Amino acid sequence: MPVALRAALEQAGHPLAAVRLTSLPDKGLAHDHVRLEGTGLLARVPKQSQMGLTAPDNLAYQQTCFARAAAGGATPQLHGVLPPSHDLPRGALLVQEIVGRPARLPEDLTALAQSLAALHGLPLPPAAARPPLRADADPLQALLDEVREQAGWWPQAGVHEEVTRCREAELAGLAALCAQPERPEVTLVAFDAHPGNFIVRPDGLAVLVDLEKCRYSYPGLDLAHATLYTSTTWDIESRCELQADEVAGFYRQWAMGMEPSAARAASSWHLPLRAAMWLWSLTWCAKWRVLSRQAVRDGADGEDWSAQRSEDRLVSHVRERVDHYLDPDVVSKIRRGFDDLGEALSL
Fold first, then answer.
1. Which domains are assigned to the chain?
2. InterPro entries in the record, alphabetically (predicted)?
3. How far apart are CA 222 and CA 205, in angstroms?
4. What is the reported pTM?
């Protein structure tokens, strides 16, 4: 990757074309990262578009994510864009490198809650100004549609029938929720706020470094993604199984960082959106189990979950986690945890 990045920098006549380049460990399924030594910058090089976009649109989308989130003060600054080229078919973003450590749970929960509140508290632009970021007319129905699309891979995923019954029950519950007229308030959300995507600086600020999938939707989805079992046990460096009282404290810390009216409006949606976010994660696991077996796709556009795009070590880790999250005992434990959290939040 450094060779290709250098060639792209040289082709663009970039002033940093001669700096030393160092590949970082392969930690994610969507990007490679290369450090531009001595500059404070990282090149964020897409492996694919998780949202199914063309290479130019994927870069433009991510560029907008960084730009919109920047005002919250808890995300990296964007410093440049390298367009798709022969050497980098998907292009790259040049972003601020955040110096710090991986998030440690539960001790960093307050820092994560504060950073998400800073993101969710940003002024909401008029509807016409929200694109190119995803801004569905009904984000809850759109989430249901997304879950159903991912569930289309379920029959090929070899999932235990008990888990299938649980998925069908949760899907029916989400559909029933969509049939009601009430909706939460919309904010800018990351939609990928699992703890492994945060770096904690020495001053204690938790910086959300992955902004590929921002959208205008419900903050409860981010709060769930930050604290669900399927998130807190995903990343090796931040792995932790949170207790219900710890998660309830996280929600309360987030509320303290929001306008009181916004916090009150969101409170009744915490549990329903938590179940919805878990259902999204569960169906994604089935989708990945199927699509990771496929060969690398030709071209630079769209999704490509092929295991061939990542190092064997990373793929083995993801496969182990996916198998674990699709295990019937794990699924049952997570569903029981919703009731435990409901009790903790009511105290």
1. 2-96 (3.30.200.20), 101-346 (3.90.1200.10)
2. Kinase-like_dom_sf
3. 17
4. 0.95
